[in-house]
Amino acid sequence: MSAHRFASAGIHAHEGGELPVEAWLAALASLPAVGPARLRALLAIDRPAELWASLQGPPSPELAKVAGKRDLYEQWRRTAVGLDVARLWARHRECGIGVAALGTPGYPSVLRDDLDPPAVVFHKGDPQVVHGPRVAIVGTRRCTRYGSDVAFELGRDLASAGVGVVSGLALGIDAAAHAGTLDAGAAPPIAVVGNGLDRVYPERNRALWRAVADQGVLLGEAPLGAPPERWRFPARNRIIAALADVVVVVESHASGGAMHTVTEAAARNRAVMAVPGPVRSSASDGCHGLLADGCAPCRDGDDVLLALGMSGAVNAPLDSRPDPGETGRQVLEALGWQPADAEQLNGRTGLTMAQVAGAVEELRIAGWVAVSGRWIERVGLPR
User: Fold this and answer.
1) pLDDT by residue (tens digit) across 158-196?
2) Fewest CB atoms less than 10 Å from the CB: which of 78, 139, 240, 369?
3) Any idea what DSSP says for residue 83?
């Protein structure tokens, strides 16, 4: 049965009232280990409400086949008996979570014709912001200060130019990109997450999560209560790729989630750009591989606007930091964009340790470098 057909099923009688198709989809998505593929396979058998009833009835060979494992099928049956669908639906409404089924008017149009459209989309915030030009900024959670600064600047400058910035709200590059978007106060941020919208993950991004929901939109295909299980994130990455006109990889190791997003983008004929990084930085290995494979380099927001076919330069903010001075410039040149300690800078510059220490302290106060323990890192434009 097609998704468009099950969406047309409308409402279904239930004790205490009638429930829309989205309520039954939320219930099915709440079953253990039900991701996009299993949900699609279930919906090929019957309509959502009828599937739920079948799970509560005599054993079904068709449903057991979709589960693949007997224990999982038994878990589904126990869940179906114990879960109050009407209450689950009420909780979504109480939490301000919107739910849209594929084939209904509220479903994001950009996902409707995707290679692998979610059967149901959950959202918090304004789903109408998913329009106009959109760029996904992705990368590693274990980013360097260089990567974080570049992601922040790209998010800020693209949002200022009216581009919707899409990312996954993970630590590292994702968080920096969305922080930059919020700093611009222009185009609303668009985040795609891999768990229920009532479960902030990672916890460190709670304030960012709330700000994105307030000023833009959070999207996902997991119902309330769904934990951030590892298998959900590759599924999330395909939605990020589907939403984007261009995917920009800021920093990525040779393998990881960002490279999976690149694969999904290539399957959808989306342009992929990569930010060059220090050649000795393993955090940029994936980006350098993409550049070697022919992806366009991304140096700044102007490069991305060009890829989008948008005219006009990004009005990047001027650097208001005081001039670092001759010794400061010498230290910054020796530092580059990889962390170093004072001894390394001493060896690279020929300055005395006292001169290095004095220059680093002046650069720190002026906002040119950040110091964490023994490590010194260069900082991009002030935020």
Assistant:
1) 999 999 999 999 999 999 999 999 999 999 999 999 999
2) 78
3) -
